[in-house]
Amino acid sequence: MSATQVPVRDGTRLFEELCAVHGIMTRGAQLVLGSFTQLAGGAAVDTKTLVATVQWFVDFVRHFHQGKDELFWPVVRERFPGRVRRLDRLAEDADALGETLDELESVIGRIAEERRVGGSVSWGRAMREGTLASYRIRDLLAERFGVEEPLLRGLIPVAPDEGVAGLRKALADSVSRGGPHLVLGLLEHPEPLPGRDRLYGGLPPSVRWTRGMLMSRFRRTLKALAAD
Q1: Residues 55-65: pLDDT tens digits?
Q2: What is the C-alpha to C-alpha distance for residues 62 and 15, in angstroms, rounded to an integer?
Q3: 77 vs 80: CA distance, rounded Å
Q4: What pTM does this model have?
């Protein structure tokens, strides 16, 4: 390190990791929305892949926000009392987000059932409902992150390094371990997210060792969703 280079605080690293996870969800929302839009336009979207991808996305977003509500925000409130009043607004957003995730899950549940029994579900209705729910989720996530990130940018990077460990553990416990090909792919595509390398360091060795195979699977997923 040069004499003029300022060392990076652990809180700054943690903030970058958090924003990278937000980026995965933002890109995931756009991928789901784009695939429903392509399906509505008559593109050859593989519905089995769509169902699996949407279920991963719903589970990932739910797990992350439930984990943050139970594990992450209590630590933030404890360490920064009096400076997090804006978090009260997030409770209202959480209800709307949860309801819309339920709507999206209901849509793919119907699609999956029709595929299984060979029925004739109203595809127009399913595509319309899936597209509208995807739009709402994308916008709700953007609004939520628009509140969270400016708030946390002023708190986490200035936290003492020794006090960041609890926040990092809470963040790590809030991230779902499912769908590693989607996690890695959305970190990379269409370009690497800031904080990607920091998230890599916390991934299980088995995921890092199979990165090439997982990225190939991600590219096949994009093709199946008519998103490549």
Answers
A1: 999 999 999 99
A2: 20
A3: 5
A4: 0.90
